[in-house]
Each structure stands twice: as structure tokens, then as C-alpha cells.
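Notebook B, p. 112. Complex prediction, attempt 2.
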Amino acid sequence: DTAVSQTPKYLVTQMGNDKSIKCEQNLGHDTMYWYKQDSKKFLKIMFSYNNKELIINETVPNRFSPKSPDKAHLNLHINSLELGDSAVYFCASSLLTGSEQYFGPGTRLTVT
Amino acid sequence: KQEVTQIPAALSVPEGENLVLNCSFTDSAIYNLQWFRQDPGKGLTSLLLIQSSQREQTSGRLNASLDKSSGRSTLYIAASQPGDSATYLCAVLNTGNQFYFGTGTSLTVIP
């Protein structure tokens, strides 16, 4: 059973388009996260939700909007995609904020 | 702002050697520190999590230590194997609920 899953695994799209990445966890965790890993492999947190409530919102463009319909899901919607948005996006979850994090396999987004 | 640095950036060792990976952070007001491994094209796998009140954690051939006052953590890998080849990342959770990842160490274990 996959603990943290993301779809799609790969996403290629053109500048200006709007796209969504979905994340689901079946671990019963309360906290979920979105991270961006750039071309230099540096990981940076974007958002964190605890029980559907936003608790961390790092400095990211407001073109990025997370949505948590329930505590098992945290989706990432991106409007007006730009070349600089190309990266690997990772979803993660933890039982509580600050406890051990479990990562999804990542979504490689390429904007052309 | 917290800065997390890992040295060396890359390391190559022959199979069977013991090795140490280093992680340093500038702000000692941390809640915990977690070590991960990342295989090429894959997500991160959690290895060890050390709470700020702890000095070390062990799992199999891995031992992680934490010296909060000096802003350092080490990951010790005993009897390295080719399957240990991966990028190792440390991540710090500040008391303000802010996460910071290190720059990573790419480890290659040569058979």
C-alpha cells in the first residue's frame, strides 16, 4: 500500500496554463506539506496544512494555491505557469506538525 | 533566518568503510532534526529523527547525533554497502514551525 501518493508523476505543459497536482495519504496523519525541489536539488517548503488548516505559507507566488478537501488530501493548483515553476514537487505528511515526515514520490513539472 | 549546510557535498568511499556525514545549522532554536535519503528520481525516505532534547538516535547501521548548542548533527554509517549510495539530506524544524533542508551530501559506495 502506498503511504503518500501523488498524481501525476510527470507533467509537461506550456507557459500560461493552469495545472493541478494531487496528493493523498493513507497514514491517518493530521499534517501535510508541499515542497519544491529545484534543479540544484535544493528542497524548500511551500505550504503546510494541519487538519485542513493552513499553518505554514512560505513566500511563494499567489499563483500557487493549496487546497485541502479533507485531512487525507492536499492538492496544489498553479495558475499562469511560468518557466521558473519547472521543478519536482513533493508532497509529505506527518502524524503531527514536527513529527517524522513521509514523502510522496514527487511530480516532475516541466513548463515549456 | 536558519541556514542548514551539509559537508561534504559529495563523498565516495569503498565498500565496508565507516563514514560520517555532517550537518550544521545556524539557529539552535530547533524543535527537531531529521535525516533523509533520496535515491535518484525518487522521493525522500526518512532515516532518523532526533528531538531537540535528545543526543542521538540509532537504527541498524545508522547513528545520528545532535549537538544543539554547537549547531551540529552527524550521521554515522557503519560498514557501508553499495546500496547506501544516495543523497543524504538533513532537515531542521525551528521552534517557529519553519522547516529548512540542508544542501545534501551525495554518497557513492564503491563495490
